[in-house]
Specification:
With 166 residues, this protein is α+β, with helices and mostly antiparallel strands. The chain is 21% helix and 37% strand.
């Protein structure tokens, strides 16, 4: 199946590429992933799709000529074949659009059928990309990070004192 997702990171293209390729920096944000490791130049991912069926992917980077792209593919050891690309587009100086394109196929016909009816892998990737995007999000000036809290009664942002209280 083919999946293409777009998300944004508030940093330069080079920084976004470096941070995304450094799995150690954000793997703790991937809560539904049972294993997310990089060893000997390969990335290992284990997670489950609906019904509790395991997905194991072992990915390696494929050399490419375009520095704005990172190509990757799976190799033996997993139960899914994967080909993919991460593309980085600098929208403005501190905003990079990242496009993830993945073509995957389960080796098991049964798992292909389960995924076809549940869209389990696509939903899983959606949740993980949202977590990654939130992990790297920078606070925007004038927007409170604690948006779910009610506004203070006195109208002052949290942490600011009135002049007479000093």
């Amino acid at each position: 199946m083919l999946i293409q997702k777009t998300f944004h990171l508030g940093m330069t293209k080079e920084a976004a590429r470096a941070k995304l390729l450094n799995l150690r920096e954000y793997r703790n944000e991937l809560h539904e992933v049972e294993r997310a490791e990089v060893e000997d130049g390969a990335a290992y991912f284990d997670f489950r799709i609906p019904g509790g069926f395991p997905v194991r992917a072992q990915l390696t980077e494929v050399p490419g000529e375009n520095p704005a792209q990172t190509l990757f593919r799976s190799y033996s050891g997993g139960n899914v074949e994967v080909l993919g690309v991460l593309e980085f587009f600098e929208i403005k100086p501190d905003l990079t659009e990242v496009v993830l394109t993945i073509d995957y196929s389960f080796l098991s016909p049964f798992l292909r059928l389960v995924d076809y009816f549940t869209s389990g892998v696509e939903r899983f990737i959606d949740r993980q990309l949202e977590r990654v995007e939130n992990h790297f999000a920078k606070p925007v000036a004038g927007v409170r990070a604690d948006r779910n809290l009610p506004a203070p009664i006195n109208g002052n942002p949290i942490g600011e004192e009135e002049e007479g209280e000093k």
